[in-house]
Structures are given as structure tokens and as C-alpha cells.
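Data availability excerpt. The first of two example chains:
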Amino acid sequence: MLDLTKVALIQGWDKQFLNHSTYIEHQMTQLGFNTELLHEQPNVVKENGGGLRIWQYPNQFSKYLCLLHEQNVHSYIEIGCRWGGTFILTTEYLKLCNDSFNESTAVDLIDSPVKEYCDARDKTTFMKSNSSSEQFKSFVQSSYFDLIFIDGDHSYEGVKTDYESCKNNGRIFVFHDIASDACPGVVKFWNELKTHESDKYDFYEFVEQYDEVFQETGKCFLGIGVAIKKAKICYITAVFGNYELTCKNMCKQTVASDFICFTENKKIRSNGWIIDTTPYHISHKSELDDGCKLNSFVNNKHSFNVAKFYKQSFQNVPRLKHYDVIVWLDGTIEITYDKTSEYLLSKIYDKKVIGWHHEWRRGILKQEADASIDYRYTNTFWNNQHQPYQDVKKQYEEYLKDGYSEEYFKQIESHTPNLGVWITCFAAFLNKDEEVTRFLKLWYLQTLKYSTQDQVGFSYVCQKSNLIPFTLPNSEITGDCPHDRTQFYIKHAHNS
């Protein structure tokens, strides 16, 4: 049994010391440690047994928690929770660090006493499961967790299986017993991961030992290894309703980059993309969608409209919050240039939004609106799905009433005569910037209110917010025909 009254002690920790390892190490002694395999344990653990039965060395775990303090963790899963002490301490600590932390899951084969703790709390779950089972793999691969703690099967194959099951569904991966002479399989896997995935992760180790244990046994125990994904930039796309048959190929980038496809099609050919089938447009619907607008999901369930959520409201998707840069790609886009990410990162922190000019419109939004008398907007039934009539002409007229001026962009000095209308099949955004957040919300609002023709709404929002994208092509990057191909990409036909 666990003494759950100890939870209140964690909740009472002084927040100003949450990144002080000496403070945490001292506080841990009041919570209670595991009483098994005492020959592996230092005196500080032996003398403070019971309570939450935390199976950790305080000198390792306190420093590990300090690392988490800076990671903005919103969700957590622990694979192999045993009694649950580590899970409880981690969950409560993350709640103290981040008011938006909102989900934790404990997994084990046994009927862990941590279930009592989980049952008394919202969005805190105990799952009795074998982590090598298809049931568990299906669960974790249809979820996303910022932090994944792997402490289950300690054989080499066991820890490898757990990692392979969830490697595309997390950001921070933690491995327990990486320095333990009692767990050679974990040690081997950790060392291989550091060797083979050094381009993908930043690695941290907390392996400090207690002299009295080593002198008595001649061995090292426990040890915590942390692998944090390096990628600051993520390319996203959304494929719903079989509008595209595959995720398009992408060129490996010279800097760490992630590619995530949001789709309901679990069998889509990924071509190296991470596939996420979580329906975030339902579970994390935008606050702007009040159900009363033309393209609110209750009024327009067309897959084309669903994709707009991921294109314009991606900041509502939890797994994307930690990236510095999000690059939207329509499902037709194949990245062909290996330095695309490198170039975007060199510009985006100053420019905030990066896009390609529309080479056919000469910067005149009315031309774009007039050209949108297209089946995707005028037909109330296309691609075998119903939708409301999308009145792009009325949308443009409303913009004029609101003060939109075709002369506005002509007054801005630019290298391109096409400034004023952009092709949004490729658009990069500085993800954590407040000005960009306001831009994205206003852009998505145009889709909800008026039409799914987001290129018309994009120009309006640029003018309304006075946030002008860094516009390509330019003297550095070629691509005069972005509807076809640029130095960055090739645009394929739909349904390919």
C-alpha cells in the first residue's frame, strides 16, 4: 500500500525552489522510498522506507526533475510504474511547474496501488497492460505524450520494444537503470541510442552513485538517461477524406526536422512522415468555433474543412506546442531541398511568417477572389461529401467594407511585384510568438465565417494585422512558379 497523505507534502513544495536539486533531494526524504533490494540502496533510502515507495536515488532523481522544470511538459506516461511512487512524484512535480500540465498515465502488468491515486484525479489514469501487447501499442501510437518514462521490461529486447512502440509519439524519452550493473540490457540499449541517434536527440545522464553502496557491493545501480528531441522545426500536413493517397516524399534536412501528417487513414503510405490519427479537431477544437459559424464543424464536416483546422489552428494541437517553427505543407508538396529547414530557421525569428508569392495575381486580391469560382467552393457536394456554399465573392466584398485596400501592398517596397497575394500551400510560422498567434486566430476565423478559400483570408489578415510575410522567391531562393516547383519543393497533382 501507498501512504497517499504524502502527496500533500509535494503539493506544498515552495515553487521558487523547484529548480534547486538540493531542495528537491531533501524534500524527497519525507516522501518515502522503496524497501526492496536494500543491498542496492544507500542509507538515506533505507532510513526513509515506506510512504510513496519511490524507487529512485534522490541524488539522481532530484537533478532529473530540475531538467524537466525547463521543458514545458503537458503530458506524461510512465511504462512500468511498479508501486507508483515515481509516477506520483513526477506528476505532482509537473503540475507545480506548469499550470497547463493536464494528463498522466501509469502503466504496469500488476494491479498497482497507484490506481487509487489515479482514480481520485481527472485525466490521471492507471492502465494495466503488457507494454509489448498490441493493445498497448495501439493505445500509445494513437496518443501523444511530451514525456515518456520507460522502466518496464529491463531486458535489451524489452526496452527496445517499448522505445520502438512510442518513439514517434513523444518528445522526451527517459530510460531508467542506464548505469545499473543489474540491468545490462538497458545499459546496452542506452549506449546504442546515444551512438546511433546523436543527430536526433540531446542526451542527459544522471548516474551519480552513493559511495557506501559501491564500497559494499562493488557495483553501480539505477541511473537515469534522458533523450530530448533536437528538432526546433516541424513540417505538418493534413490528409482527410482520401484527398491525397500518400504522404509525399521529403528530402532529409541538414538540421533536425520533424514531419507529421494528421489523418484518419491509419494505412496511408507514410514515406517517412510521422502519422498521427488523433482527432485533435474534435478533442482540441478552437475556442473560435462556437458552432454558429458557416464552417463550424457542426455545419461543415467536409474533409477539406477539417484540414483547415490543422493548417490554421495548429497551435491547439498539444504535440506541436514545443516547436519554435511550424511549416504547413499542403498534401501535394514534396520537399526536395535539404537546406530548407536551415534557411527557414535563419530567417523566421526575425521575419515571423514566411511564404511564397502568388505568381498569377500581381498582388491583386480581387483576382484571387474572382478565380475562386471553383467547384471546391461553389459545389455543395464534392469529393462525395456535402458542404455549405462557400461564397468567396461575398467574402471579398465584406473585406472591402471593412477597409481592405488593393493599394496597401503597392506602397510597401518589395523585391516582387506580386506582393499582396500568397500561395499558402507552403507557409512557415514562428510558433511561440504572440503576434503570430493573433495572426493565426484571425486567419482561422476567416475560414469559419466566410469560406475555406484561405488564400483570400490570408491577404486580408496580413493587411489587418500589418504582419507582412517574408516573401519568396528572392535573390537567395529561386522559384518563380510556386504553383509548380521552387528551390524548396515540387507541387504534385492532387490524389497522387
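And the second chain:
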Amino acid sequence: MQGAVLYGPRDVRFEERPEPAIVEPTDAIVRLSVTCICGSDLWPYRGANPVTQPIPMGHEYCGVVEEVGRGVTSIEKGQFVIGSFFASDNTCPHCRLGYQTSCQHRALVGGAQAPLLRVPLADGTLVATREVPPADFFPSLLALSDVMGTGWFAADAANVKPGATVAVVGDGAVGLLGVLSAKQMGAERIIAMSRHASRQRLAREFGATDIVTERGSEGVARIKELTKGVGADSVLECVGTPESMAQAIGVTRPGGSVGYVGVPHGVELDAADLFYRHVRLLGGPAPVRRYLPDLIDRVLRGRINPGKVFDLTLPLREVAEGYRAMEATSDQDAAASGRELTPCRNERWAKRRWRYPRSGSAAWGSASVTDSRPAAPTGSPSSVQPLIAASRSSTRRKRTGHSRTKSSSARRSRPFAIGWSSRRSSDSSSRTASRPDWTAGRRTFERSPRRR
């Protein structure tokens, strides 16, 4: 099979990788229906984390189980599953308390930007749906494996209660879904801190009642003004910089709570300052597994649609272009906000998603396809004609979401992630023939066929 591999800073290649196999009796092999790039993938991509050897990329996933080890009892072949970016046994003392990302036997799940994925500790990591859901739900179900689960944990850690006043620091995917989570938990007032009109609109749609554009001391003063000098009961910190953490603590009322899920980069806390503020802090890697059953139910019942944070699609073989586009948009966002550009921003709003092309009876890697669906890659990655050009402004995109569509200008300005899926002419020799055709409607995300 072919998948994304990082060799060094800004050197992502789509190349042959060994197909995953059962190693431990508790393993499962999943054929992914959709996958994506997370904002945290930009850290090693930009060189913030040293890369000493080729690294298979990706940790967000959902799909159909192809094989299970002999020790797996609750997951079966053919089930559609969603899992966390950390594998857990879900039975140790930490798991029973609800902190599966601190499982005594935890293992990082990686290499998800590929058709197949090995998931350790399958019984404790994967949650199956009753049946394979319609493809319209794939983007939202994919979001549950990390970004939605992380936003929910931020709200839970911040002790959001019905009737509470909530402030959300960060308007990336996690921050936006933190707004959605706070709304679902019954918050009466939700203040979103955002300087981007497109994200402000989505925050409003998710439940934000107020938008604050100020930053630093001005942002703190503005929220104090909105709350008549009291501050917020619960604050969600979804960035991970010293400035965002200081702002989160500064707007929290005495006795209030901060849920922080932005991975800290250079954050230092003043213990004496915290001592006199009476502010609680709780954060860490989100225990997504704890929330999956409830969140899956909310998605399938139509109560939430976290897939709206995705707005750009690409074929998996264009993964390198996805990283470039994501980094470029990340830099533009930092410049527009007046922030200094750093080697690696710790904001997780930028997302990219792909689906795997359905190719009739042809196997992955075969050049023959049916039903005018995208041809599977052949030859070296560099020989494949891109479906989305380097200049993102010159291409058409499809917004994901169960049934919503907007203009191309709105799509370009949305906080994004990619998904990928497109139809194309069987004549792939020309650039015109390789452009996406979105006339097929909203059923863009289709699961790939199970291997026989």
C-alpha cells in the first residue's frame, strides 16, 4: 500500500509502505474510510520536533475492521469503528477513572494517512457503530477521533455547567468545537475570542453568544466588561502559547476553572499568582475514548455536526500538497493576527481530510477503475497529476457537512481541514480531466470496499 511518510522538515512523501499486520493478539486492522492532517502534524513537518528516521504520519481515523487478533472479543470484522489517537486497554485504574490517554498500557496510534491502520488494544480503543453509517456522516465521525473529543474534554475539564458563562480562547478547530461542546453542556453565555470573520460565523452557528476580537490585557478587560467585572465561570484554552494561557487565566473568575488542551509550548505558570486567584486548572491529552459512545450517538442522531470544521478535499496521493496548503494558511493566519511567525504554531484549527477512492473490483494501486471515480495512484508520487493546484485560490472546493453548501469565496475563508474525495474523468492525462467535479452532490465521502 501507499501512505504518507515524513523524512524531514517539509519533506512528506507518498510512497510504498508495508501493509500493517496483526502483531499482538489484541490488535485490529482497520481499512480507513477517511483520514486527515491534524494541526499537531505541523510540528515535525516544520522541524520543531527532530525527525531522525522516516515517520508514517496521521493519527485520526475511522473505517471498517478488516481483521482482528485472536484475543479481541468485542470488535468484529466488518464493523465500522472510530478510535482515539492513543490506544488504551480501558480496564486499568486510570482508564476506569476516565483518563484513557494515561492508560498504564497506552500506545500511540500512528500511520493513519494510509489505506490501512493497525490499532493496538482494539477492545479498549475502538468503538463500533451498530451499522456502517451513510457516507454523509464520515466527516463528523472522523472529527470525533481527536478534534471534537478534545474540544469536549476542554469543556468538561473547565467544569461547564448549565447556565454557566464560558469563554473560549482559540478559534481553531478545537476552539470552535469547544464552543459547540459548551453549548451542548447547557452553557447560557459563550464568549468566543476570534479575529476571523469566517470562524466567527461558525462559532455563532455552534452557539457563541459574544465575539471578542481583542487580545492580551485588552481581551481580558473586554471579557470583564461583558461579565460586569466578574469573569467567566469556565474557560477553554485551545492554543497552548504563553499568551493564550495568560489570557485564559486572566478572564477566569475566582472559583472558576480552566480546561487547557492546547499542547503547551513555552508556557510557564506563576504559582503565587494562581494561589491568590482561586482558579482551577485541568488539562492534558484528551481522553477521547471516554466520550466516544456519547459523541457518536449525538452525531448519528443529528444533534451535532462537527464535520463543519472541514472544508477542503484532496486525494490521499496529494498529501504533500495538503501539508503545504495547511502550513501556508497557518502562516497567513498568524500574520493577519499580528503574531510573530514561529517554526511551529501550536494551533490545531487547520485540518485536512481525505477519503480513499472506491475503485470497483480493482485493488489499491491498480490503474483501472470504474464508475469514473479517481484512479488509484501508479508509479512514483511525483508522477501523479494533482487534483488541487498549488494555488488554492484557483481551485474549486467542496465544503463538508451533512447538507450545507456555500460559495467558493466562503469556502476559502473557512477554518479548514481537508477531506478528500472527488470524481474525475477516466482520461487522467490532462489537467482539465483531473479537476474535481462536485456535481455528484453531497455524498462525497465513500468508504472503500473491503478486501476479499
